Amino acid sequence: MRPIAASLIASAVLALFGTSTNAATVYKVHIPIPSLATTGSSGGETTEPEPKEPLTLTLQQAQLRDAVVGSAYSMDFSTLLGASGDGADTIQPTDVSWALGTGTIPPGLTLIGSELKGTPTKKTTSGSSFEVIATYQDAQGKQVYTLKGLCCINPPEVEPPQAPDGFTQQRPSGVCPEW
User: Fold this and answer.
1) Would you tell me which of 15, 60, 69, 106 could form a disulfide with 80, CB atoms 3.0–4.6 Å apart?
2) Does the model's pTM come out above 0.70?
3) By three-state DSSP, how is residue 171 classified?
């Protein structure tokens, strides 16, 4: 409401009820402000707006597929992203920023956007655990994932050490060479 309109209303109230110095009556005027109130279905009643539910991001738990040393690997974490609350239906995966938190990813892999990708270069016996963080505006979702069993399905062609005379040495298939 403009200041001029407010002073006109105040003047009209004083003109209607007078300005007697003996009057002890207090009058209250309730003026709804349209930007803070909404009109109900009956048209005349006003109600306060419903409070908005804060935006929440979540990353689902998942067992990641094994990575193979020497073979390309890719995992898109945006497929595990969930959102609820006000504005959740307008989030686009490209609007979310992604980062690694605690832990380490295997050598040869990198988080680019929502995608963990690359070619693993080293076998691990216990796997690698790392935290992925998704952020959109003030909301953040976190989850720890483990990439297990970095192994070779088709080991690289590496010559094993020579076996002593009279013995043959075979490289087992499906295991990373230790030599």
Assistant:
1) 60
2) no
3) coil
